[in-house]
Amino acid sequence: MIQMGFVPTGDPHSVREPLLALRSIRKEFPGVVALDGISLDFYGGEVHAIIGENGAGKSTLIKVIAGVYQPDGGTIVWEGKEVRLRNPSDAISLGIAVIYQEPMLCPDLSVLENIMLGRLPRKFGFVLWREAREKVQSLLLELGISLPLDAAVSELSQAQRQLVEIVKALSRHAKLLIMDEPTSSLSEAEVECLFGVVMRLRGRGVGIIYISHRIDEVFRIADRVTVLRDGNLVGTFNAADVTKEQLIQLMVGRPVDQYYGRASGSVGDVLLEVKGLRLRNRFHDVSFAVRSGEVVGIAGLVGSGRSSIAQALFGIAPPDDGEIVWRGRSVQIRNPADAMRLGIVYVPEDRLKQGLVPQMSVRENMTLAILRQIASMGVTRTGVEYELSHGMVDKLSIHPPDVKRRVKFLSGGNQQKVVLGKWLLCHPKLLILDEPTRGIDVGAKAEVHRLIGEFAKSGMGILLISSDLPELLAMSDKVLVMRDGRLVAELSRDKATQERVLSLAVGGNGRMASQQAALRIGQINAIQSSASGANALIHAGSVLWRKLISPLLRSLLLGRREQMLLLFLIAISLLTAIKRPDFLSPSNISDILTNYAYSMLIAIGMTCVIVSGGIDLSVGAVLALCAILCGLLSKFGIGLGLIALASTFVGSLCGLLNGTLSVGLSIPPVIVTLGMMSIIRGSLLWATGGYWVLDLPAWFNSTYQLKLLHLPIPVYAALLSVAFASIMLRYTSFGRAIYAVGSNEEASRLGGVNVSLVRCSSFIICGALTGVGAFFYATRFTAIQSNAGIGLELFVIASVVIGGTNIFGGSGSILGSALAIILLGTIASALVFLHVSSYWENAIEGALILLAVGLDAMRWRMRQRSFI
Predict the structure, then answer these.
(1) Any idea what DSSP says for residue 241?
(2) Which of 140, 383, 674, 694 is 20 to 30 A distant from 865 in Cα terms?
(3) Cis before 669 (ω within 30)
(4) Closest C-alpha to 202, from 182, 221, 181, 227
(5) Collapsed DSSP state (helix, strand, coil) of residue 308
(6) What is the band of 859 on the pLDDT scale with cuts at 50, 70, 90?
(7) How far apart are CA 760 and CA 747, in angstroms?
(8) Where residue 507 falls among pLDDT bands split at 50, 70, 90?
(9) Whole-angstrom distance between the N-terminal and C-terminal Cα of the chain?
(10) Contact 562/816 with Cβ under 8 angstroms?
(11) Distance between CA atoms of 454 and 225, rounded to whole angstroms?
(12) What angle do CA 179, 185, 191 make, to 5 degrees?
């Protein structure tokens, strides 16, 4: 038995200065001491593994090292000098890079942008895309990894996202690389590739902190191992001096007799039978059965269709064809509620998106699926909730054992336990487990395996999906092997070996498959050769659809929003001109652009704010404030140039105030800007008494008197601003930061982006452009209303959404917003020319919003079904 705190003699690091030294690090959270006086040394050129149960303090420790958390006590020494890591940027600047367990990526950005997040090479503020691409491609070539650099991360598989996270960390040329469960979503080949990279980095003198629940991996690559338990340091050991069993005992504080253990039981009647099940682009012709008391394992590579089968059976993605037979009766499972009524529950692989409500407590999450059962006359019995959730917390050893704690503050493994507990409270007849032990420590794994055995022994049927092949083979009565969306084999327990399952999963039976494919092709050809004239006509229609109609629909649905808006704009203009040819006259085109020039400027700012993840409801009120200011200044004889500067300055101040309150005080932007709108409107009505600003000097609207090609100066100013802002947002490092922050704030912050500055700057830009727009609005007329800009905020937000900007942030186009403004202006003008009531304008605007959002939803579904 190894004594706790023992450090082997003759340690080669004893005379060498550590790269990173932690001295008495302490970190507390409300009610929990996460780290209690941790002292550790990390050296360059070594792999230092940190292991421990969930809640032991591993994640908190690496976040302290990464600058995400500031310790409550102790010191951090980097290369012999005491440092203070105030934020992730400080850690990155020293040469510390982190690969987190859950990939910290911006889903709306490309793979290239995510890898170079916060570090895109630039010159004069513009991104050098060719240089960035060459750097990343060189790194991928060195690592032997292939990734689609131009694809959005949202389109990648979980394994590909993990690889992006790894490449991003390695691209920082780190001196110390922290890897938190890096292999949890990787295939065997990808794991081997990663280990090769780790060994090469170690050879170059890079220090590596490796955190994993997979003890076998620790022994493969680690030089030293540190064990944490309940926030305390148990000890640091040379990997060669300890055994797997000893480490597990040190982690859990007790002997774990059986890593994979399962109680034996008898198999009963058929619970579930599926016949010819098919889900387009996911899996085809799948048939199998699950009996009561039986554990059926599903093996296969990532993307083979394993999880899709589980989701089809639980009603998340209902199958397109086939039959589901439940206890001898054919049923349809259209949604999860149907599955739950039958007694089928599903523990998903992605616990954060499909298994939990992070803002709710452990108690609320656990009882979410049984609220009706524990309610009395519609009122939830809180006492029963506490009793059930406390019992499940004790049963699953969730740490800390606090049912009131919000789930988002639990470690990943304890979150997984909460998901499992939620469904166990439903007392299911069939339990579908998709990667149930992913991210769970060895002690908890043993408990989950024991529970699986007990459930099976009690008569529950279990469908088990796992990438841990030893786990799958040990726990299953039979194993189904998936490959490329097809069930290629069903193996009994005694015939399912690792070698055979892997061979089938990767295509070891390829000759037979190819012969079957050739036979199917021959049968198809024979059928086609005997086709009648009617079949030939059907075939011609199929070709027409495939070659012409389908590509056209795909281009409309999946193409850029700007193209669609331009097509709509041209179509509406031409259709109106058929009845009123003067609609396309230069004077009318000039009127449309002149009327909406100021709105285009404000739409630029609104796009920046929404893309960054905010919203500004105060633009209409700010426009009124700045416009009235312009009118009053003109009456004092102030020149137009100074008036324009004053309007821009006041608008910027309003934007700064919005940004400061929203970012600095963490108040939702919708609340801040709504309050600002009310304050400004009320102040203006009080100051003006509700009267207009009249008797403006004759020279005040001179900007509209100067025209070039029938267009006044403000139109050119608006169009040039759209062009400049489009370039800025797309091709400068600041513009890319706006997209990154809106796509994933936490990933951007951990990538070194100053999130607060970016968010606040977007509000300032919006305020400044509103001030410029107010100047153009005011100088067009001879009088200014005290309630100018009423409804402008809704019009601009609608235009931005129609233009393709995601209302939740992360994606959008300034050009699209500008085209949407012009499109809505053209529609309003067309209604006047055709003598249609102007009330239809709002209805059409609403219809366009619904159409834009509907197209986005269809695009998302098509991508989910792998149509692109």
Answers:
(1) G
(2) 140
(3) no
(4) 221
(5) helix
(6) low
(7) 18
(8) low
(9) 57
(10) yes
(11) 34
(12) 65
Q: What is the pLDDT of residue 417?
A: 83
Tokens 């209902």 belong to residue: 318
> Are 78 and 94 within 8 A, CB to CB?
yes
Using CA atoms, how far apart are residues 834 and 578, in angstroms rounded to an integer?
11
Longest dimension (CA), the chain: 96
Q: Minimal CA–CA distance to 117: which of 745, 726, 740?
A: 740
Among the listed residues 368, 451, 450, the one whose alpha carbon sits nearest the alpha carbon of residue 407: 368
To 5 degrees, how large is the angle CA 127–CA 131–CA 133? 95
**Which two three-digit tokens encode residue 275?**
């016949």
Q: Are 594 and 719 in contact (CB under 8 A)?
A: no
3-state SS, residue 783: coil
Q: Which residue, 510, 460, 444, 499, is CA-closest to 299?
A: 499
Q: How many C-beta neighbours within 10 Å does residue 164 have?
A: 22
Q: Name the strands in the sheet holding 478-483, side by side, starting at the edge strand that comes first in the sequence.
A: 344-347, 430-434, 461-465, 295-299, 478-483, 486-492
Q: pLDDT, tens digit, for every residue of 639-664?
A: 999 999 999 999 999 999 999 999 98
pLDDT at position 7: 40
Confidence of residue 440 (pLDDT cuts 50, 70, 90): low
Rounded CA separation 608/624 (Å): 21
Output phi, psi for 253, to 5 deg. Answer: 80, 15
Give the pLDDT confidence score for residue 863 in this predicted structure: 52
CA 667 to each of CA 65, 396, 611: distance values in angstroms, whole numbers, following the listed order: 29, 37, 18
CA distances 514 to 154, 226, 518, 519, 521, Å, are 33, 50, 6, 9, 10
DSSP 127: E
**What would you report as the CA-atom Rg of the chain, rounded to the nearest whole angstrom?**
32
Which residue in this structure is represented by tokens 């179509």? 571
- What is the pLDDT, as a whole number, of residue 751? 75
pLDDT digits (tens, 9 = 90+) for 335-360: 888 998 899 999 887 777 777 888 78
Q: Tell me if residue 660 falls in helix, strand or coil.
A: helix
Q: Pick from 426, 51, 78: which is nearest to 226 by CA?
A: 51
Q: Is 513 exposed, middle or buried (0-12, 13-18, 19+ CB in 10 A)?
A: middle
Residue 27 sits at the vertex; the CA angle it makes with 26 and 31, to the nearest 5 degrees, is 125
Of 733, 862, 826, which Cα lies nearest the Cα of 109? 733
In percent, the amount of the chain with pLDDT more than 90 equals: 35
Summarize pLDDT for 710-744 with one digit per residue, the tens: 899 999 999 999 999 999 988 888 898 999 999 88
Residue 264's pLDDT band (boundaries 50, 70, 90)?
A: low
Give the residue among 602, 769, 781, 770 at the shortest CA–CA distance from 701.
Answer: 781
Spatial contact of 412 and 347, defined as CB atoms under 8 Å apart: no
Q: How many helices (H) and strands (E) does the chain have?
A: 32, 26
Q: Tell me the torsion sign for CA atoms 771, 773, 776, 778.
A: negative
Kindly report the number of other CB atoms within 10 A of residue 536's CB atom.
11
520 pLDDT above the threshold of 50: no
Measured CA to CA, the distance from residue 770 to residue 793 in angstroms comes to 11
